[in-house]
Amino acid sequence: MKIVVAYKWAPNPQDASVDDDGVVDWSRAKSGISEYDPVAVELARRLADATGGEVIGVTAGTKKVDVSMARKAALSRGLDRTVIVADDSLEGAGTTELAAALAAAIRHIGDVDLVVTGDSSVDVGAKMVPTVLAGQLGWPSVGEVTAVSGEAGALRVERDTAGGTQVLEISGPAVLAASTDAAVPRVPGMRDILAAGKKPVETLDVSALDLPAGGTTLTVTGTSRPDLKARKGQMIHATDPAAAAAELVAALRGAGVL
Amino acid sequence: MSANTWIVVAGDPAIGALIETARALGGQVTAAVVGPRAVADTIAAGGVDKVVWFGDPDQAPVEAYASAVADAVGAAPGVVLAASRPGDRVLLGAVAARLQAAVLTEPSSVSADGDALVVTRTVFGGIAVETVSVTGPVALVLDGGPVPPASGEAPVEEVAATPLGMTVVETKDNSFELVDLGAADRVVSIGRGLKAQADLAMIEALAGACKAEVACSRPVAEGLGWLGKDRYIGVSGQKIAPDVYFAIGISGQLQHMVGVRGAKIIVAINSDANALVFKDADYCLVGDLYQLVPALTKALK
């Protein structure tokens, strides 16, 4: 079974700073493997080990996603090899462009049976790349996946729904987005990181891929900071819990919210 | 100009906010509805001009109709809207891929300006707001809003569709009661500061004393699984605006606090004086939640 994990090398917005005009400065935010992607790798690894398969990483972005640290961070988590579309023309690429690049890389790999992704990316967090990717490939897509078993062409997929869980059978290849708690990812040790340096990496240029022309022109006409409520930040000393509770209740009653 | 709009629907008719957005764009509004006929009928009565329905799904999950929906929308493209729910996102993704449409999420306003669609939205987990002007195909993910009230009767056109090869073979309900946190005036929310699931009783007692709903941070619902997933607050969970929000044992990561930006008052209780949550709170109590929560419950009685 040939399993692809689509992952992202991205910074956490919590570490970015935003100026008064709403311009985001990422210079102090270090990139890493996106928060939930190790869960996807773990899910894929276990299925591959159970079925005698291979796990191939795929990512797309600017040249930054192909630095040595990014390669090792991905490969040390349980991938057998990785395919990277690293091209500065993808600077600022939206969901649809990234999904198209990932789809092209997956077609390039060929005969892929399953694509697994994380729940959402740490920076954009829209949960849309897996669904657009599935659309590009013409494959079924399911999110909130908690377990996968079966074999190529006959997958058994468990997913969370609003009121419980469902088990699905999927014939043919599919794109599955793992729930954040689908598996506890392994923590790579020194041996994994050293071994990662020896695993195969293939890089692809956008020009070598058959990407569809985007039909959209998008212009940013303005940015701003979110309009946040000013918070009081009032300390209530809590060494005496009963007194603190009384003070808080009085304050909340005074504000008319109890 | 006026823009024709598609609304893609994956089995849940709670799309009232999408109909309002589509109506405001001034063009024809067509809903592509996957799911039982009753859902198509509810939407047909809810203020759209036309419903395209893909037949009874039987044992096929909603996602199995992604290609069929993309075919239907691709034949007469327009602005495409979907609710921010897993199945709806899958249908929208297939449409966006077919149209090579830009995908925009979390819009706070959407309007037509000449040939362009102008969208203001929060980006990067809520740290900034941007306004974009888009020409060409656009797919938007919005909060669905309520089920639209019956206000008319649009025609329902049935389209023969071949679902993708996927079948629901088993459905299990979980033991969690569904909750509408958005309707709660007061919310008591718990994070990883809670040491054991049994201690939820203490949190529920506090919620009972101030007539609040119980919510949580993401790891409490996912990972620990102590509460239902519809109870976690944050960028990918519930976004609420209660009168008062108690953040108890919650560190206050950006991804969580984005979900309560609209709260009138935020109370933070945390044993770590440096916890991020205190930067976003109105009332800050540094201390042990195991002492402060019972004291607060008592004070409220």
In short:
Chain A has 258 residues and is an alpha/beta fold.
Written account of the structure:
The complex is a heterodimer of chains A (258) and B (301). Chain A is an alpha/beta fold and 258 residues long. Chain A folds into two domains: 207 residues, Rossmann fold (3-Layer(aba) Sandwich); 31 residues, no CATH class. In chain A, 26% of the residues lie in helices and 30% in strands. Chain A contains six helices and 15 strands. In chain A, strands 11-10-9-12-8-1-6-7-13 form a nine-stranded mixed β-sheet, sandwiched between helices. Chain A has a two-stranded antiparallel ribbon with strand order 2-5. A two-stranded antiparallel ribbon of chain A has the order 3-4. In chain A, strand 3 and strand 4 form a beta hairpin. Chain A is globular. Chain A starts with a strand and ends with a helix. The model of chain A has no long low-confidence stretch (mean pLDDT 96). Chain B contains eight helices and 16 strands. With 301 residues, chain B is an alpha/beta fold. Chain B is elongated, with a radius of gyration of 22 Å. In chain B, helix 5 links the parallel strand 12 and strand 13. Chain B folds into two domains: 156 residues, 3-Layer(aba) Sandwich (Rossmann fold), CATH 3.40.50; 120 residues, TPP-binding domain (Rossmann fold). In chain B, helix 3 crosses helix 4 and helix 5 packs parallel to helix 8. Chains A and B meet through helix 3, helix 4, strand 9, strand 10 and strand 11 of A and helix 3, helix 4, strand 5, strand 7 and strand 8 of B.
Q: Which keywords apply here?
A:
heterodimer; A: 258 residues; alpha/beta; Rossmann fold; 9-stranded mixed β-sheet; two-stranded antiparallel ribbon; 6 helices; globular; B: 301 residues; 2 domains; 7-stranded parallel β-sheet; 5-stranded parallel β-sheet; 8 helices; 16 strands; elongated
